[in-house]
Amino acid sequence: MSVARLAGALAALALFAAAGCSKSDAGPTPKPAVSTPGPGSTTVSKVTLDGPVYGMPADSGDGVFAATENNTVYALSPTDGSVKWSKHLAEPFRPHGCGNIVPLGITGAPVYDPASRLVYVVAEDATAHHVLYGLAAADGHVVSHVEVDPPFGDRDFLQQRPALTLWHGHVFAVFGGLAGDCGDYTGAVASVDTASGSVQWFEASTSGRGGMWAPGRPAAGPDRLYFSIGNGNADKAGDPFDGTDSVVALDENAKRVDLFAPASWASDNANDADLGSMNPLLAAGHVIIAGKSGQGYLLDPNHLTTATAFPACAAFGQAASAGDVVYLPCADGTRAFRISGTQPTALWHAAKANGQPVLDDGRLWVTDGDDGVLLALDPATGATTARVSVGALPHFATPTVVGDKVFLGTMEGVAVVSAGT
Q1: CA–CA gap between residue 37 and residue 386 (Å, rounded)
Q2: Is the dihedral of CA 349, 353, 356, 361 positive or negative?
Q3: Nearest alpha-carbon partner for 384 in 410, 352, 406, 407
Q4: Domains of the chain by range and CATH?
Q5: CA count, 13 A, side-chain hemisphere, 31
Q6: What is the pTM of this model?
Q7: CA of 396: how far to CAs of 303, 353, 371, 407, in Å?
Q8: How many whole angstroms separate alpha carbon 419 and alpha carbon 421?
């Protein structure tokens, strides 16, 4: 790390202080919501914002918060999706060399803190600095901001893709590389103390890469969070293990307390068949993971090396669960498994439901990203009970259910779908 980069990182801690908001700080005026009829009693309102919304909208109870790749945060009405306020934070970054999101602004899902009534986002500015902002939920003014660029690698080739997580008074921001895996980067987790603004780091790999990019949140236990790590540069027989192709447990200070890696980690790394594409799920007494290879694992939450393998699917993103049934985000469509003992039983497969499933009020909401459709599935059978066209969707679009509405990020803003079908 250069002296200049170190000085910048130290100076960034001083930024975690109050900052004002003026009318000129607001983003471009959004277009009014346009409602179109769906099947039965369903309606779809499309709220056009100033850029694509990749992250799952956050719910505060009396507001829904969506953030765009143009670095603008919007507060939406939970009843009709109308814009209550907007705040433009910085000009976004334009990647060079690789990457499939251009420009790069706010990609990871926001998180809402009910204690402070702040909405947190990480915005990437035009110089590739990654800044964690805390915005007042009431009016969007900036209350705090701190730079969270990892103190290793080149920030130009990093992407803050996973959803932000608030846990034990810390906001966790997770970093991977760009699509195409170019440049000098190492996967990382920043743990930011919301009281002091101090930042502590987890470095995912001792050899570089090891992107941490699965778009959902980590699984949360009482004293640890579980994250997945992608493929690293250790990929030949005889290479020392570098920490990649793994599930890692971290404490609130981003210190590693446990780790699991399959025996096949070197060949997984060499063949881009790692575990890093899915967020771990804590359900039915296990930590459940299934990466790109299609091999699934049930892990003991207290001793991750105690593991049972099972045939799963190539999984990408956040899974869902209800009791002993889990719903995996498989690339070929959602699959349901019952976890009984140490051997899961396959229940059903919904081929077109290839997004990240969200379970609410007896329905499993999931997208068909290929066709720009939001589906409601019967959790017991996988049968489609509603199908609503919502427009072009970003990768890993994830619905947020608020009352009788479903809010879903699109390539143009947010679709608001009535949940009564």
Answers
A1: 13
A2: negative
A3: 352
A4: 3-418 (2.140.10.10)
A5: 14
A6: 0.91
A7: 30, 11, 13, 14
A8: 6
